[in-house]
Each structure stands twice: as structure tokens, then as C-alpha cells.
Amino acid sequence: MPLRCAVLDDFQDAALASADWSPVEDRVEIVIREHPTDEDELACALADFDIVVTLRERIPFPATLFDRLPRLRLLVASGMRNSVIDYAAAERRGVTVCGTRSSSTPPVELTWALLLGLARNLVTENNALREGGRWQSTVGADLQGRRLGLLGLGKIGSRVAQVGLAFGMRVSAWSENLTEDRTNQVGVELTSSKEELLSTSDFVSVHLALSDRTRGLLGATELALLKPTAYLINTSRAAIVDQDALLAALHEGRIAGAGVDVFDVEPLPAGHPMRTAPRLLATPHLGYVSQANYATYYGDAVEDIQAYLTGDPVRRLG
Questions:
Q1: Mean of the per-residue pLDDT values for the chain?
Q2: The model's pTM
Q3: Residues belonging to the active site
Q4: Are 72 and 49 in contact (CB under 8 A)?
């Protein structure tokens, strides 16, 4: 009898087409599972599976869930870092956790799609054109000569910075441990404080990992420092920005707009206030979603399963 593998959150029905699963098909039955509404539904849906492939950090795997999945032996998570898996619980339960490679290019590109979409009011103008509305109803914000402030200058932030420099923007960056040596390497300015970066930037883009230190980093006090003409972009993690404070700033017109790809609950419920907020350009967590990245995720997932079956797991996490 073959092992059973559940592939979670394949929203685009792309998992099986993105990689060659034939190397494991003789030993593993692949089953696509929809996104669960809660842990009870997930525990029930996965009770009969030996292997689970999960996408990014959409579904938490706490100790309570591992305790309810005695058959589970291998958990494959896309990427090489996952903050919602209890690795100690997995180890206690004898579950091997493996990751996959991931490219930083897609989130860089989406960051700029959101920023440019906001700056040039693309959704408003596109809708008006298609619906026979007013011809040219907005005036776009310029990029050249404006300041782009980056919260974080890692792999993604530094590449976002390079594009900003190519547009002729003045680019500055801040994070708690950022050094002048690092900003000099990238060719951007080091801002002395988070407050200075927020108050002087025309566009602010978040590129920090979520941690106890960055959770709630931008609350009502910090958002109040932004210029009324400034735009905020977040393709990192929703919890870095206080969602209620952001909604209030958008509704009250205290910032020009926000581009958001990440949310406190995903998928976003139908009645969530983010769906109807003004001055918001939002996408359903597409930062990592690209043909090349999916080919890597699912191709590596197949390799992870193969390696586990031979008794020599690769890309182990924990």
C-alpha cells in the first residue's frame, strides 16, 4: 500500500503541473487538499496522511496538531524558514521537517508592482477606462528624486533598493542592527532611526523578518509620522504593521495609500475590512507566487520525499 501525501493550499491547481512527481508516484499517492478553516478541520483532513507538503507559513503546525496526527512522518514546507512550525513537537513525534529552496526575485518584483500601481493610480485609471468613465482622473506621483525608505536591507530589501536607485530615487534604509558598511555596499543611505526614516520618506517598504522584535513595529504612533503624501508597501509579514492602525490611517486619509500583499488572516475572509479599505492596493499574498518559484518549491518537495524514502533526508529544518 503506497504512502499518502497531502499537498495543501494549491489555490491555482498548479502543484502537479509545476514539477515532475513521477519519481515518487510508485510509492506515494499524491492528494490535493483545500485550505482548512481551523485546526480541527485540518487534523481531520490529514489524519490518513504520512506526508504533508505545506505552502509558506499559511498553516500553523503547533504541538497540538502534531499530537493529533500520529501517522504523519514527513512535513515539507516551501522555503528554508518557517515560523509557524513547532520543530520541537515535530521531533518528539518523530516527524522529519524539510524545506525547499526559494527565490527572492518574485517578492522584489511584486513590491515594485504595488509601488508603481499606487504611484500611478493604475487600478483607478484602468477601471475608468474599461467602464467608460472619466478620461484621466488622477495625477501620478513621481519616483525620480523622491525618497524610498526601506525597513530592512537583506536579500529582498537590497534588490528593491537597486531598482529604486535605477529610477533615480534617493534610497535610505533602517533596521535595528543595520550598519553603515552594509548600506555602503548597497549604495544607499543609513538612516539614524526608524522615526527619521518614516518621517522623511515618500515611499516606505517593509522587508523585515517577523520576530518578537519586529512584531507590531509600525503602530499608530509610527504611522502618524508618515507624510500625508507618503505610501506604505508591505510584502513581508502582516504582523509587522498594526492592521487596525493601518486601516484607520487609510480611512482617515492620513497617508496617500498602501500596497499590501500580506494579511492577519489568510485567505482573507469575505467580510474582512481590508477588502473594502480606501487608498489600498491589495494582492492575495502573491509575493512568492511565480512559475519559476513554484517549479522550485514543488520540484524540491519531490526531492525531499525521494530522499526521505531512501533514509537520507535533505534540507532538514528545525
A1: 97
A2: 0.93
A3: 237, 266, 285
A4: yes
